[in-house]
Design goal:
With 162 residues, this protein is of the alpha+beta class. The protein has 5 helices and 6 strands; from the N terminus they run E-H-H-H-E-E-E-H-E-H-E.
Length: 162
């Protein structure tokens, strides 16, 4: 079952968040939870989770509303992580449908999901700048790199409960 996480549930999902953000510390996650799990029903951030039949969290995602010129109100999701071992997509589908209902309730027209491919700074190719490897302007400040694929899903018309 997928739902918005309460603070005590979000604390249990730290190891899932680390799968998306390997350098995330427990303190950073705890600080983020204070903002994302408050009772405000605003534009985000909001942490959602999905549990298996035994009550273990098998996936999380973090969403927030943004406005874009092309799509208007967008429910931006990053990350969307589900460990769906042997479950044939049921958990992922449950989480996505929960996002869809929430996004619709906020007046969003689409859901945009970022699919990250994280790269450690030590292995990064830097943009060519002539002598990029000798120039420490960027190397000293680089904390990570994200290569993203963004998938955009139109919200289906509201229908009776599925």
């Amino acid at each position: 079952m997928a739902h918005r996480l309460k603070p005590e549930q979000a604390h249990l999902a730290f190891v899932l968040a680390q799968q998306a953000y390997p350098r995330l510390t427990k303190q950073q996650w705890d600080d983020f939870i204070e903002t994302a799990c408050d009772d405000d029903d605003g534009d985000g951030p909001i942490i959602f989770g999905v549990e298996n039949l035994r009550g273990y969290f098998m996936g999380i995602c973090i969403g927030r509303v943004t406005d874009t010129p092309q799509y208007g109100r967008v429910f931006d999701v990053d990350p969307f992580i589900v460990f769906d071992l042997g479950d044939s997509g049921t958990l992922s589908r449950s989480l996505f449908l929960t996002l869809e209902r929430h996004a619709r309730s906020l007046g969003c027209t689409v859901i945009r999901i970022a699919t990250p491919m994280r790269v450690d700074p030590e292995t990064l190719p830097l943009p060519y700048s002539g002598n990029a490897m000798k120039d420490t302007t960027f190397i000293d400040r680089l904390v990570g790199s994200e290569q993203l694929t963004r998938s955009i899903y139109a919200l289906s018309p509201a229908t009776a409960e599925r």
